[in-house]
Amino acid sequence: MAKTAVYAVFKGRKTGLFYYWPECHEPVDGFPDASFKKFSTVDEVFSTLAIKTALSGARRQYLHALHGWCLFHLQSIA
């Protein structure tokens, strides 16, 4: 099984998690001060966010729900 990368776009025309480079490249290509990073796993994305960001309770709940959604969809395509 091929290793799946996760691309997180923090600042671009569209933000979020992407699982294919062309999907990630489109919202950041030519966008001023775009911010994005490649991660090995979805868990690594959320660990990085938790470490770098002081999250409010509502924001933490949103990220937790998003994480669950991503895991569900990753499992459904595996």
TrEMBL record:
This is Ribonuclease H1 N-terminal domain-containing protein. Coiled coil: none annotated. It comes from Dipteronia sinensis. It comes from the Eukaryota. SUPFAM superfamilies: L9 N-domain-like (SSF55658). Residues 6-44 form the Ribonuclease H1 N-terminal domain. Pfam families: Cauli_VI.
